[in-house]
Amino acid sequence: MKPKNLKEALKNELSKKEIQYLISSYDMVGDIAIIEVPYELEKKEAVIADTLLKLHKNINVVVKKTSEHKGVFRLQKYKVIAGEKRKKTEYVESGVRMRFNIERVYFSTRFGTERLRIARLVKQDEDVLVMFSGVAPFPLVIARNSDAKEIYGIEINPVAHKYGLENVKLNKMEDKIKLYEGDVRMIVPTLRKKFDRVVMPLPKGGESFLDMALKAVKGNGVVHFYDFLHVDDFSLAKKKIREACKKAGKRYKTQRLVKCGQQKPYVYRICLDVKVYD
Ligand SMILES: C[S@@+](CC[C@H](N)C(=O)[O-])C[C@H]1O[C@@H](n2cnc3c(N)ncnc32)[C@H](O)[C@@H]1O
């Protein structure tokens, strides 16, 4: 009989003590399963990965994380430990297909619900700017799930930008989405356009680009500002907005604060939706 989960499938391969260390949850990006192997099980990683591969038909590659997100591009390292030797895959979310190499770009499946939330806020004929657009998941999910007029994206990682362009073509969205490669700080002043909505999916350090977002947003437009904050410090996000708007000489109203992910115990990724007036 087929084992019902990874723990059961490994009961003859791992000791009772080793089973206690096993992290049986994993992330799926397309057909790649991303597992975490605790130090105590490193010698058993091959058998764990092979077992997972055999257990699920939809998995073709098993990788383990070997670093945290690092650098401006927010990249993470992975090692293939079972299945096909590749890190490129195709992922489907909210009606769009996206192809990318998981090690060369930032991508989080855990942001999917948030992308759809933003798309559903977009009203007919809005012009939307997505700063930090990566492989274009926000632009694509917004284009597919709203009646936006035009969506612009800006991304500094050339590899992510290239995948973004490919994904726009793959989804036949060339008439709605325009992607720019470069630093938000350099690109925004060249756009000569203002937007009804500016999305800022850079939770670590995004506040240093609030001046750009406030320049790009139309009067009565909305800025979606992301941050990682401890549950006791959510008011810090409001303080960052207050100070940036004061500096830019803009009035604003906080519409809502949304928890849209958990980074570690008590630390959440939050989004502050802010209406900005001239
Ligand atoms: C947290 S990721 C979000 C990517 C994408 N929006 C998503 O949801 O998967 C942040 C992205 O911002 C890009 N980035 C960082 N600094 C930037 C800058 N100054 N200008 C443009 N893009 C930048 C990184 O390369 C990375 O792809």
Note the main attributes of this structure:
278 residues; alpha/beta; GMP Synthetase, Chain A, domain 3; Rossmann fold; 7-stranded mixed sheet; 4-stranded mixed sheet; 29% helix; 33% strand
Would you kindly provide a written description of the structure presented here, covering whatever features stand out?
This protein is of the alpha/beta class and 278 residues long. It folds into two domains: 6-86, Met-10+ protein-like domains (GMP Synthetase, Chain A, domain 3); 104-277, Rossmann fold. It is 29% helix and 33% strand. The chain has helices at residues 6-9, 16-21, 45-55, 112-121, 137-145, 158-170, 184-191, 210-216, 235-248; strands spanning 27-29, 32-35, 61-65, 78-83, 88-93, 96-101, 127-131, 150-155, 177-181, 195-200, 217-230, 251-264, 267-277. A hairpin with a 2-residue loop joins strand 1 and strand 2 (32-35). The protein is globular, with a radius of gyration of 21 Å. The mean pLDDT is 96. It binds S-adenosylmethionine. Residues 72-74, 106-108, 111, 132-134, 137-138, 154-157, 160, 183-185, 201-202 line the site of S-adenosylmethionine (SAM).
